Amino acid sequence: MALILLVITPIIAVLLSLAVPRKIWPLELIAAMAAPIELGSLIMSAISVLGQKSYSFGSFLSLDPLGTIVLSTIVVVGFAASYYSIGYLRREVQKEIIGFRRVRQYFVLFHLFLLAMFFAVTTTNPILTWLSIEATTLATAFLISFYNKPSAMEAAWKYLIINSIGLSLGLFGTLLFLSPTMNLAADSFISWQVLLANAHLLNPLLAKIAFVFVLIGYGTKAGLAPMHTWLPDAHSKAPSPVSALLSGALLNVALMAILRYKAVADITVGPLFSQNLLILFGAMSVVIPAFIIVIQKNYKRLFAYSSIEHMGIMALGFGFGGLGTFAALLHMIYHSLTKSTLFFSAGNIFLKYSSTKIYNVKGTLTVLPITGIILLIGFLAIIGMPPFGIFMTEFYILTSGMAAYPLVVVGILIALAIIFVGFLRHTTNMALGPNIENVPVGESNYLTVIPAIFLLSLFVIISIFLPEPVKSLVQQASLLVK
Amino acid sequence: MHYLTPQISLIFSTLIFGTVVLLNLTKKDSIAVKLYMLQSAAIAILLLLSSFQKLSLLLLIAIIATIAVKVVFAPYFFLKLIKRHPSNFSHSTFLNTPLTVAVMVLLSILTQASFFKPLIFLSPSSQDLLFISMATILISLFLSINRKGALSQALGVLSLENSIVSFALFAGLEQSPALQLGITASIFIWVTIASIFTTMIFRQFGSLDVSSMRELTE
Hints:
The complex is a heterodimer. By secondary structure, chain A is mostly helical.
C-alpha cells in the first residue's frame, strides 16, 4: 500500500496543481502536503524491506534494499527540495522574474519529475524502468529551460538530445539483455527477477555487448565521463532546487539501472568484465572534472563537475568490489545529501547576488551568515575532509582498490588533491572577503535556509553515527550488487 | 503462415538502411522529414507483418499508434515547423559530404568487427539482416552527431529509435504490445517537446543551427 501511495501522491499533486486558478499559495500548499506523504510512504516501505528483504505491491511495483537506498535519496532530497522550491520561487516572484503561470508550470513538472523517478526505482520491469528514466528527461527539459534565456535553452536542448541518444543506446542494451527471456510465454511479465533467473541462458559474448551499451546509455544519464557533457550545463542552468534533485537523485537512478544490469552480466560473464569497465569510466569521471574544477568560474558548474567526480568515485567503488561496493552505496547517500545542500546554498547565493560567477560573489559569511556557514561545511564535506562520512567512504573505496589497481588509486588520489585545491580556492574566495558590492545582508527567507539545514544535519548525523537500519540496508544492497 | 519472409525482411532492412544513408546526405529538411516518414512506414509494415499470427486488439492498437505518431504526427509537426521558418533551417554538417560518406562506409564495415559478431547468436538465420540493422543504428547515431540543425538532430534521434526497433524485430526481440504502446507514447511526447524546443531555439537564437549556440562554452 505504501508503494502505491508513493506513486499516486505526485499524480494527485500534478492534477491538483493543474486545477489551481491564478493563486500561487495553493500550489505551495499542494507541494508542502505531498512531500511528507511521500516521506511517510518511504519510511513505511523501508521498514517492510528491512523486515522482509523486499516489499511488493502486486507484480508491478517492488522494492529491494538497493531500490530502497536510491528511493530514499529521491524522497529525502525531494522532501527538502519541495519546501526549498516554495521559498526560492517566492523570491523570484517578488523580483517579478516569474509569475503564476511559470510557478504552476514549475510545480507540475517538479511532481512529474518525482513521479518518473519513483516509478523508475519501484517498477519491476526493465523496459518500464527505461521508459521512466526517459520520462525524467522529458519532465526536466522544461525545468532546465525554466528561465527562458538563451543559455538555458542551449543547456536544455543539449540535455534532451544527448540523453535521448544515450537512452536509445540503453534501450538497445536492455533488449539484448532481455533476449533469453523471449522464449517465455508472450504475455508473461519480464521482471528484474526473471531476468536474473535467466541470466545463465544469455550468450556471454552477447552479454558483454549488452553491458557496454547499457553502461554507455545509462552512464550518459548518470553523468559518467566522457558522456557527461550535458551535465554541467543542465545542472547550472536549472533552478537550484531542480539542480539539487538532478544531482542528488536522478544520477543515482541511472546508476541503479547500471547496477541491476551489472548483476545480470556478472552471472553470465563473471564480475571482472563489468568491474573493469566501471573502473575505466569511474577513473575518467574523477580525473576529467579535476582539471576543470580548478579553472572553474561559475559556482553552480563547480558543483556540477563535483557531481561527475562523485559519480566516478561510486563507479570506482562498484568496480573495485568487496568493501568498495558497501562504501560506494554509502557514498551515494552522503553525496546526495551534501550536494543537494550545496545546490540549495548556491540558490541562496544566486537569489542574493543575482550572479552565478564566482568573482561576483564575495563575503557570503557576512552577507548570508547561515548560508555562508552551510557552504563552508558543505565544502569541507564534499571534498572528503574528516570526520565527515565522505572521507570514510572515499578511504574505503580507495583502500579496496589499492591491492589490485594501485596505479588507478594513485591517479585518483592526485586528482582528488587537485579537486581539493580548486574547491578551497573558489570557496574561500566566495565565503571570505568584504562585501564589496554592498549586497543587503540577510537570508532571503526561512524556507530557503531550513531545507539546507535539514539536509546538512541529516548528513552530519549519519556521518558520525550510522543508524543500524541504514547500515543493514546498505549491507543487503551491496550483496545484491555483488 | 509467416508473412515476414527472408526476402521481404531483406527488402525492408535495405529500405530502412537506405533512408538513414539519404538522411545523412540530403540537403533539404523537407526531404529529410519525408525520408523519416518513409522509414517509419517501413517499420510499421514490418511490425504488422511480424505480428499477423498473434494479432490481438492491443497489438493492433500499438501498431496503429506507431503509424499515427511516427508516420503522421511527427512528420506533420516537423513539416509545419519548416513551413513556418522556411529559410532558417540548417542542413549543414560538421563533416563535408565526401567525409560523411567515408564515415558511413567505415561504420558499415565496423559492424563486421569481432565485437559485433556475437549478435548473430540472437538469430543465426538472420545474420545479414542483423548486420544491416546494426549499421543502420550506427549511421543514425552519426546523423545526430554530424548535423548542425536542431531539426536534423531530432530526426537523428528518432531514426536511431526506428533502427533499434528494426533490429529488435529481425532479432526476434519484440516487446509486448503494452510496452510497445509505452515506447510509442514516449516518442509522441518527445516529438512534441522537441518541436516546442525547436521553436524556442529559433526565437532565442534567430537560427536553428545548433553551432550558433555558444553561451555555455567553458
